Amino acid sequence: xxxxxxxxxxxxxxxxxxxxxxxxxxxxxxxxxxxxxxxxxxxxxxxxxxxxxxxxxxxxxxxxxxxxxxxxxxxxxxxxxxxxxxxxxxxxxxxxxxxxxxxxxxxxxxxxxxxxxxxxxxxxxxxxxxxxxxxxxxxxxxxxxxxxxxxxxxxxxxxxxxxxxxxxxxxxxxxxxxxxxxxxxxxxxxxxxxxxxxxxxxxxxxxxxxxxxxxxxxxxxxxxxxxxxxxxxxxxxxxxxxxxxxxxxxxxxxxxxxxxxxxxxxxxxxxxxxxxxxxxxxxxxxxxxxxxxxxxxxxxxxxxxxxxxxxxxxxxxxxxxxxxxxxxxxxxxxxxxxxxxxxxxxxxxxxxxxxxxxxxxxxxxxxxxxxxxxxxxxxxxxxxxxxxx
Length: 389
Description:
It is a single chain. The protein has 389 residues and is an all-beta fold. The protein contains 2 helices and 26 strands. Strand 10 and strand 11 form a beta hairpin. It is globular and about 45 Å long.
């Protein structure tokens, strides 16, 4: 799917329990076969979940359809239940529209940010009918594990009506927080991946391309659209960035690619697509890929749909997650059950399995998954947990 800004603000871009996350509080259930319960009555997208040193899980989700808030949830029982504990309610979210929030726990002091602070980046001014829009990525900060939030800064603003999307945060080895995001505002290409970094926690500097596959509007690769970057640390400290590349041709049908960096900033040649990810049978996840590295170094990889080599459905869509027990991004990949199975997800909508959230608990033995299902025209957020082996 080639993503357009006209869809991003409205939708954009068997083991274990599966529970439907509606309302302010979720009642936990211990029976695996327990009936699903609603957590969010309104449309919900872009779930993100992080594990705090205390063992508490903190999750964020963007709520749509007249609500337009980022809601923050907490679990203190390993994902059995979640309770809403905070809200980011900037009026601009409703007046200008917003998209693709990303949650990050600051692991060390970075300028004015303290170790343990939470930051959330979100694209604002994304309304598709506003030809004068100048999308920006706002940064918000919490010093109390997500209970209260304050606006911190504007990390970047688009130079024109082209959108900025999908911020993702990681650490550079020099102590800077690095933010990767997708950028539609350049003449070089329909979309590219770029990065900035902050040393003081407020100002984001050193605007640099990460993946830009052409140089002008008439180039052969202009229509290729890298996006949806997610960066994790491999066991040896190498930064591992996955992303999709959408565009014409089988190789770019929103397939997953990766690049690595030893310093968290330099990811190699800008004009190369990176390494395409696939299993030994050439099956691959397409659309909104995410990765998570377990404490033992294993890599988990999940996308919206799982395709076979020719691009047809694999028959495993929405039911499995790939695992590389060796910690090698090239595999070998084996399948584990998705904690939240989805019935026949398809890339034709921006809800079913779109940009899910993953977090390991119990030393990596268990995975908590947050993902969305389309039911009755409403995109509802489910959570569940299951083994990683």
